[in-house]
């Protein structure tokens, strides 16, 4: 006997600004994390379930909904099963470029879906330090951040 959670397909995108060496993550309450660890909020890359669209359109929609962010370009990193022992969810992972001036913290989310997110812009060097110090608890975010570190290590040093 097996239990299966049927979630379908989803996306995850780490938006980054190469010129300013920053990335945007979202803070949000996650009930399972609250239950398991007492954490009030998580800090994550943008993610969401693919609805009546393709993965690229979903990534753009989720960036707009969760972070009020328009992505200039998407780079597909990989697609993988998130928890193959229990879930049918297959996630498409992207690095997304954005441009523009520095962003202040922004509350976003879709009210009808009871989604309340706060978009926060971080220096990539700070995110790397947080990852190295085990201060980022979301595996999706860590995968994309480490991928960006491997592919574009120059973005993680101070501009010079």
Coarse morphology: globular
Determine the N-to-C terminus distance: 59 Å
What share of the residues does DSSP label as strand, in percent? 25-35%
How many DSSP H or I helices? 4
CA radius of gyration is 15 Å
What is the β-strand count?
A: 8
Q: Would you identify the regions where 5 or more consecutive residues have pLDDT less than 50?
A: none
Secondary-structure element order, N to C: EEHEEHEEEEHH
Largest sheet geometry: 8 strands, mixed
Strand-pairing-aware structural class: alpha+beta
Structure description:
The chain is α+β, with helices and mostly antiparallel strands and 160 residues long. It has helices at residues 31-37, 55-67, 124-132, 139-151, and strands spanning 9-17, 22-28, 42-44, 46-49, 73-81, 90-97, 106-108, 117-123. The protein is globular, with a radius of gyration of 15 Å.
Quick rundown:
The protein has 160 residues and is α+β, with helices and mostly antiparallel strands.
What's the structural blueprint in terms of helices and strands?
Elements: E1 9-17, E2 22-28, H1 31-37, E3 42-44, E4 46-49, H2 55-67, E5 73-81, E6 90-97, E7 106-108, E8 117-123, H3 124-132, H4 139-151
Parallel strand pairs: 1-6
Antiparallel strand pairs: 1-2, 1-4, 2-3, 2-8, 5-6, 7-8
